[in-house]
Amino acid sequence: MPMGRTHPAARRAVPRATLGAAVGLAALTLVRWLLADRAVGLVLDALLAAAAIIGTLDAAHRARAGRSRLGWRCDTAGLTLWLLAPLAWLSPLPEAAATAGRTGFVLCTGAACWFTAKTPAMSSRVRLVVDGAIAGAALFIIGWHPLFEGTVDAAEGGLAGAAAVALPLGAVAALTLFGTVSITEIPRCRRAMPRLYMAGLATVALSDVLWVRTGHPLWAVGFAFVLLGTRVYRGTSERREVVSTHPGLVYAPYAALVPAIAVILVDYLGDGVPEAVAATAVVTGVLLIVRQQATLVENRHLVERLEATERRLRHQAMHDSLTGLGGRALLHDRLETATAEHRADGTPVAVIFLDLDDFKQINDVHGHAVGDHVLVAIARRLGAALERGTQYARAFRMSGDEFAVLLRGDAARDAAATARTLLAEITAPVEVDGTSVSVGGSAGVAVPGPDVPAEPSALLRAADVAMYGVKHGGKGGVAQAHG
């Protein structure tokens, strides 16, 4: 079967599996909602949590990246800790054990989302976490009167009341974090698992409230969503690199606060802002400041990365990738400066063109890998020979087996002698894997004069012509263009 095509039976199986999962979830939702026996319902919740644990263990085995594997293991730990809740409610264990287990689930889920993000910058991860916290704070302010105030009252305050509000909000914060990662990093074709996982988190968050308010949670349904997510998981996906705040999410946290601010204004103009809402508003303000600072750091890192990339690209454009020597563009740039100085104050300048004789035979007899090795060795010899001088002298690779040398100052006063020295250096045999490879060379020298203007193109052309004059006359010598 050609790659990229899906068998017709497989295409039919996908909607069937989706329909089956939907029907199963609907049935599970109805069963869990109708269960009047508290113990039976909690046992069902625990069984689905255990099934989800097995699914996360299998997903961790299929994960190809270390961070993804660690994220799934955090999910496994969180689900395992959650099992303390039904165990405590069905045994003489104190309520604190149930709260600790559910708190551990939320914390581990948040850690899993943290590890899921592939962004390398710590500032980006901090911003993602803060965005989740802002979403949870906004939800708390919006839902205080219709939802959370009654939930705290139903829990009779204290630790249970705090947990009844904090745990679902924590789940929502983790959901926001994971949703942001999904939108910004994960390809659309691989978002089935994140969507099911987020549906599970949303259901668990709702269940924490329903448990206190009605006694009819849907934890089993939430864990069923997580289990389905592990079933459709195909291993770590190729992630898009996010170097800054995603354009679609730049203002999302601020937009989420608009209805929260409206609620605060209504309360202020009415019976007054509740203490819990006021405290949350203050915390939200601090979170916004932290987010702004994280964004500034993130943008600074982006600028630094762009500058580093620009330097790297400029270096690649100006240098030869094989030998590391400057390239033709860099030679022109340096020659522009040198000829300008010569025209201004008479600073000597010269150009040497070096061409390896019969280099094609090395590639034909020994192969291109050996030829590349010889070119690298020649470049090193040129660099070492020029470094021994006291004046400015620099080698460049023009193309193929052609090199150029730019001389300035006293080094340019006897360019022909320098060219002969360089030829002696490069014609020494090169050892490659125990084989001695010999190569010759021809050189042309150009200095400014009456017939050679102090212009980059004129000097390069004159040196090139002089070098080819040597090659046509028998190779292996030095010729200087008459200025």
UniProtKB/TrEMBL annotation:
Transmembrane segments: 13-35, 41-60, 128-147, 159-184, 196-212, 218-236, 248-266, 272-290
Database matches in Gene3D superfamilies: 3.30.70.270
SMART domains reported for this sequence: GGDEF
CDD domains xrefs: GGDEF
UniProt domain GGDEF: residue ranges: 347-483
Keywords: Membrane, Transmembrane, Transmembrane helix
Record-linked InterPro entries: DGC-Regulatory_Protein, GGDEF_dom, Nucleotide_cyclase, Rev_trsase/Diguanyl_cyclase
Methyltransferase as UniProt keyword: no
Record-linked PANTHER family: DIGUANYLATE CYCLASE DGCT-RELATED (PTHR46663), GGDEF DOMAIN-CONTAINING PROTEIN (PTHR46663:SF2)
Protein name: GGDEF domain-containing protein
